[in-house]
Hints:
Blueprint: E1 4-7, E2 12-15, E3 18-20, H1 23-29, H2 41-59, H3 72-85, E4 87-97, E5 104-113, E6 116-123, H4 130-143, E7 149-155, E8 161-166, H5 170-188
Parallel strand pairs: 6-7
Antiparallel strand pairs: 1-2, 2-3, 4-5, 5-6, 7-8
Helix pairs in contact: 4-5
Amino acid sequence: MDNLTFRESDHSYLFKGVRLPSVTQIIADAGLYGDTSYFTDYSRDRGSFIHEAIEYHLSGELDEETLDPVIVPYLDAWKKFQAEAKYVPDSCEERLASDVYHFAGTIDHIGHLDGHFSIIDVKTSVVASAATGIQLAGYEILLSARGARRFALHLKDDGNYKLIEYKDRNDRNVFLAALALWGWKQNAGIK
């Protein structure tokens, strides 16, 4: 997306020179994730490496012999999912911003799952929660794709996966409410 930059150093998005909150930041600031004790530096780094391995796999650029053995079963789970679910990727790790709502995010996977346009968020640490549906609704808003099917894909360290669909259309309203709360807190100077 033109005019959108992402700074890895502080995980921030700049759109047309203005810093925007991310989907996950909005949800976290609203307290919707609940217990995040599972989210450690190790799990964050492992998740990043898994996402990168999948991205290279999809582009045909992955040399699997260079993978850390910890990553291999997660990639195997991805491959199993892709084959069994008949997933056809359109894009991977797509960064988008909303000119209307003024937030940004990175969508893990956009594609067609068994022939249906779908958004997929990959999870590697814990099984997705109700907040994942809200996160996916934020991504759906970024895509301007009402009616997209929304999924969390939990890749497991034993080479298996669990695919969870989120169908609650109220997730969109909850995300927009969290975004409004985030904006109100910023204007009021509340951290």
